[in-house]
Amino acid sequence: MSPTTHNVNVVETASMTATITARTRSNFAILHLLSAAAFSREVGKLEQAHAGKPFGDFWEEILASATAAVFTAVAGFEAFANELFVDHATVFPELRVEVMAKLWELYEQKAILEKYEFALLLKGGTAFDRGSKLYQDAQALIRLRNGLTHFKPEWFDEQEEHAKISAFLSNRFNGSQFLPNAEPLFPRSWASHSCTQWAVRSLTAFIVEFQLRAGLPNKLLPFRERLDAL
Q1: Fewer CB within 10 A of the terminal residue: the chain, N end or C end?
Q2: Nearest CA among 8, 73, 89 for reference residue 39
Q3: Quick check: pTM over 0.85?
């Protein structure tokens, strides 16, 4: 099954059926999440292949796949929120089209979690507890993605922003087995199979819980086997 939307308008007459328009649109939220799962599996394979070896050039491959897993996981998380508003006629049928268009103007540039919170408010669902593990895991992962995207070097013995990111990530996953235990999680030790598994599981769990609270069907259900294979 592919996450692609088809919209065909058909006119039927007594003698024929004529297709007036055919529209196809690719939704990338699920595709990004599936990519994140694939990159996570690659990290696992690399760690297994080099288990017990000292730090070496292979670690760069682990870092590349782990970074791709984090980037695509967060990309999928944000795309899913955006698709809620793009598909407003289906997701928010109780609201007028022009109202949703205006609301999207106001919220398109908002932070990812704010979009989910606003969508849940519109659906009348129970709000997320911002202190819950589900919410904090999503926030920590976004913080990791942002730290990598807007990376600024810091000396290991004079860390400020790096130390804050490491604190956000602490106790959520195991750091790299190829780096010293004393090395902070950010900017390098976070790159592990344990982290990429946590990343995909955390964001898919958030999306599933969001849909439950919003009274929406679970769009991830047909892809669960592939998303769970990490």
Answers
A1: N
A2: 73
A3: yes
